Amino acid sequence: MEAAVAHLQRASELLPRNPVLRCELGKVLAQTGRMELALPCFEQATEAAPDDVEPWLLVGVTAGRMGRTGDAIHALRKAHSLSPSHPMVQRELAELLFEAGDAPGSLPLWTRIAKAAPSDVHARLRLGETLSRLGMHRDAVSNYRDAVSTSPDAANLWLALGQALEDDGDRDGARRAYQTALDLKPDWALPLSALLGLGQGDGSSQLVAQAQRLQAGAALGDTDRALIGYELGKVLDSLGDHAAAFASWADANRARRRTAGPMDREALEQWVADALASSPAEAEGPDFAAGEDESLVFIVGMPRSGTTLTEQIIAAHPLAIGCGELPDMALIAQRADAAGKPPYPSGLLREWADSYMSSVRRHAEGTAKTRFVDKAPLNFFHLPLIASMFPRARVIWMRRDPRDIGLSIYSQNFSPDARFATDLRDLGHYINAHVRLMRHWTKTLPISLLEMDYHSLAQEPETQARRLLEFIGLDWDERCLDFHRSKRGVQTPSRWQVKEPVHTRSLGRWHRHEVSLQPLIEVLSPSAYV
C-alpha cells in the first residue's frame, strides 16, 4: 500500500491538475486511515474538475467520516446537483441529513431510494423513521406495511411497524406487530419491552415470566437489561408489587448508567452558575419580522411534568397545532454556542428564526392554524435564546410535585443522553437546577410566561384549560376538554395516558415508593416543591 501511495504521489507531482490521479491518491490514503491527507486530494480534484460528480462525492464521504458534517453535506449537495439519480450520492446525502436531524431534507431522498429498491430494509427503516419525525404517522405505517409484505421475515421491520402503529394510536395493531417481531426473534428485548409497555392483554403473564427469566440471567447485555427492566417494573407496579417494581427499575438504571455514564454534576452546576450571573442582553428585541411572530407557544419544564397533556389540550383547539418535541431549538442553541456569547447579530438571529419557523410551519401546511406548540421540555435551557429570537412567543412552565416527577423519570426508558435519569441523587440535583434556572428566567427575561401546576390541571381541567387558552390568546373551545378523542399521533412516553380524559390517578404516586425514593427526597431543595 505504501508503494502505491509513493507511486501516486510521484504521478500527481508530474500532473498536479489531473483529477483522476488526485482521487486515486486520496482513495489509497483513505484506505490506510489517513483521512486528513485524503480530503485535500479530493478537494483539489473538485477544483480541477468542478463538474465531475466523483470528486464531490469523495469529499462528502470523507468529510462525513471525519465528523465534518456541514462540509460533507455541502459537498454531497453539489454532487447531487450534478447527478440527481446517482445511487451512492443519494444514499450518502440521505444518511447524513437523517443523522443531522434534517428530516424534511432527507425525506425525498429516502423516498426515491426505497422506491428504487423496495426490499432494501435499511432504506425502508430510514424512510419510516423520517416520516415519523415529521409527524406523518399514517404514511410511516403504510411504508412499513408495504415493507413487511416484501420482507416478511425481517423482524426489525415488524418492530418498526409496531412503533409506527403506536405513534398513530393503534394499540391492538402495535401489539400484533410486536408479537410477530418477537416470534421471529425470540427473547429480543425490544419487542418484548414494547409488549410489556402496552400493558395488560392476552399473554401478559407469559411476557412477565419471560422478562423475569431474562432479567435473572447473566446473558442479558446492559442495553437490553435496561429496556426490559423499565417496562417490567411498570407491569409489576400495576399489579401491586411495588417493591419488585422498584427493584426492576433500579436494575434497569444501573444497567443504563453502565453504558451511558453518570451525570456531570459539577458541569451542570457551573452551567447554571454562569447562566445566573449572565446579563439578559441576549433577550433584547430583534429588529426583524420573525421577532414579531405571536404564533409560537413553548411548553417547558422537567420531563414527566405534564407537558404532553398540556400540548394535547391546546392542540385540540381548531386554531392550534401541536408540533411535538421539536429538536430544532436545541440544534440552533448548538449553533449559537459556536457563534460566541450573546448578544448575537440580528442577521444570525434572523437566520435562526427563519430556520425554526420553516420547520414549525411544515406541521401546519394547508391549514389555518394560528398557534404552534413546541413541547420539548428541555427548551427551558434555551429560554434566553428563544426570548431573543421570538420576544412575543408565549412560554408555559409546567410544575409538578418533584417526587412524582422523580419517580416517573426513574421508571422511564429515556434516551441514554438523559444521564440525570439513572440516579436518584442526580435527579434531585437536576430538578433543583431546573427550578433555579426557571426562577431566574422568570424574573429577568422579557417574555410572556405562565406557570402551570399539573396538580391543579388534573383536578380542575376546565378552569386551567381556560387559563391556558386565555394566556395564548385563543377563545375558549369545548373541544379542548375532549383532547383524548383526537386522532393525532403522540410520540412521547405519555402517548396512552393522553388517549383518555384528564384523571388524578398519577397524583401522589410517590407515596407507594417513599422509602425507596429517600435519596431523591434528601437532595430536593424547598424551592423545588410546587
TrEMBL record:
The keyword Metal-binding does not apply. Pfam families: Sulfotransfer_3, TPR_16, TPR_8. Keywords: TPR repeat, Transferase. One of its GO terms (molecular function) is protein-tyrosine sulfotransferase activity. TPR repeats lie at residues 19-52, 121-154, 155-188. Coiled coil: none annotated. This is Flp pilus assembly protein TadD, contains TPR repeats. InterPro entries: P-loop_NTPase, TPR-like_helical_dom_sf, TPR_rpt, TPST-like. It comes from Lysobacter spongiicola DSM 21749. PROSITE patterns: TPR (PS50005). The keyword Membrane does not apply.
